[in-house]
Amino acid sequence: MKEIYDVCIIGAGPSGMMAAIQAGQKSLNVIVLEKKSRPGLKLSITGKGRCNITNSASIKEFVDLFYNGKFLYSSFHAFSNIDVISFFESLNVPCKLERGGRYFPVSDKACDVVNALVKTVKKFAKVASSFKVKSAKQDDNGIFCISGNFYVYARNLIIASGGMSYPATGSSGDGYRFAESFGHSIKKPIAALVPIVLESKYLNELKGLKLKNVEVSLEVSNKIILKEFGEMEFTSFGADGSVILTISSLVSLNMDKGNNINLKINLKPAVSQECLNVRLLKEINKFGQYQVKDMIKEFLPIQFIKPFLNYCGINITKKCSQLTKFDREKMLNTFFEISFKILSTKDIKDAIVTRGGILTNEINQKTMESKFINGLYFCGEVIDVDAPTGGFNLQAAFSTGFVAGTSVYRS
Ligand SMILES: Cc1cc2nc3c(=O)[nH]c(=O)nc-3n(C[C@H](O)[C@H](O)[C@H](O)COP(=O)(O)OP(=O)(O)OC[C@H]3O[C@@H](n4cnc5c(N)ncnc54)[C@H](O)[C@@H]3O)c2cc1C
Question: Of 37, 150, 178, 250, which has the most beta carbons under 10 Å away?
């Protein structure tokens, strides 16, 4: 006779594992199907291998930061950042607070988070690794039939298969197809939190340069639509880093509309134009017979000097005493605004998270159950929610996984 599980979960990422633990703790018979040879592959590379597990922000701040944040309100209440920290502490993974409210495991090892989760999941559920789900359907008796390496039957199905970014970790958008087969609608997945590609003759010289405390503005069709303060890094193709990732989903959206987009960097956001002008005049006088490239070292990292002066149209060997008022004004303005044309974002496969996915208005936000199909649940990044970097996305995966896992029942 075929075995019918109470719950089948597609995907052993953070959301699926959390759902499995919660459902298993209610003595339900749970199976987790994972495409890759081991669970939590993406989780193991989060936070540059350190796993930024959650954030100290309030629930209101969480909701405000998320795209479709209101949908997550109940989940964040049901399983908050404090609950996530207590949960991992109970699994012997103590957490520490860092800059920007970011929580990391004290060990700085994402693998400790993964190992603790996997060990706990295995206490409460069966985990079938290297099991790629091909399709899922429901029969007239409400039993789900999930096909892959073999058939799995279950009274409840939780789709926790993630988004479309970093497909090598297993998340390649399969869940959208499964959801569609049950009548759900999918908002087109686009890259969110992704590096951007710039058109610039200076990239060869700038690549690898990290800038701290800069303000970047996103200009779309001659209008500034977003400003962000923080860190960025030039790469061989363009720019990466926290402020770039934050603005990137708006870049994706506006690229789709065919708009002309520029990245403007303010290198001195904390200084007034007046103060910088006084300092610049002072240094120009001080360096009189020396070349402008020696003077500008007082204001910029060495790697930026040549591109900066080139951008200003000033010969790097020009003596300070020969600088004109026009040269000085050009330098002054460039400190506050150096502009790069944005060509595109990198591909969705290079994105930290996916924007788009299963429409939130088709899911009961208190239970994560489908509004169309009894016994069908969703959790994690497969749903159309996403947030900036800072531990928010993992919190959403844990919270929605918790809600899905506690909401399933033996029907
Ligand atoms: C490089 C990187 C760094 C990140 N760092 C952070 C961070 O520090 N903090 C943070 O909050 N967020 C971070 N994120 C985002 C975060 O990792 C994701 O939002 C989170 O993992 C989503 O969890 P999930 O369970 O929904 O999906 P996933 O973690 O993507 O897990 C989905 C699972 O489903 C499996 N699966 C998919 N299709 C099938 C199928 N057909 N059959 C069987 N199994 C299937 C996949 O193999 C995968 O294991 C980072 C993302 C990346 C790419």
Answer: 178
Q: Residue 411: what pLDDT?
A: 63
Starting at the edge strand found earlier in the chain, the sheet holding 102-105 runs 54-55, 102-105, 95-98
Could you tell me the residue range of the domain that residue 22 belongs to?
A: 4-190+354-407
| CA atoms within 13 Å, Cβ hemisphere of 151 | 10
Q: Are residues 364 and 227 in the same domain?
A: no
Rounded to 5 degrees, φ, ψ at 161 are -90, 10
Do both 340 and 200 map to the same domain?
Answer: yes
Low pLDDT (below 70) residues in the chain: 410-411
Nearest 5°: CA angle at 368, between 362 and 369? 70
Per-position DSSP letters for 184-224, written without gaps between them: --EEEEEEES--EEEE-TTHHHHTT-EEEEEEEEEEETTEE
On whether both 250 and 142 belong to a single domain, the answer is no
Residue 338 belongs to a domain with what CATH number? 1.10.8.50
CA of 40 to the centre of ligand 1 (A): 7
Task: Look at residue 258 in the predicted model and tell me its pLDDT.
Answer: 77
Residue ending a domain, choose from 346, 377, 398: 346
Of all residues in the chain, the percent with pLDDT exceeding 90 is 94
Say if residue 225 is in the same domain as residue 160. Answer: no
Question: In this structure, are 182 and 274 located in the same domain?
Answer: no
Cα 227 to Cα 24, 214, 234, 267, 269, distances in angstroms: 45, 10, 18, 13, 11
pLDDT for 254 equals: 87
346, 365, 394 - which closes a domain? 346
Tell which residue, 128, 151, 127, 148, has the closest CA to residue 139.
151
* Predicted pLDDT at 235: 97
Q: Are residues 403 and 302 in the same domain?
A: no
Spacing, Cα 401 to ligand 1 middle (Å): 12
Pocket of ligand 1 (CB under 6 A): 10-16, 33-36, 41-43, 45-47, 51-52, 131-133, 160-162, 165-166, 170-171, 174, 352-353, 380-381, 391-394, 397
Rounded to two decimals, the pTM is 0.91
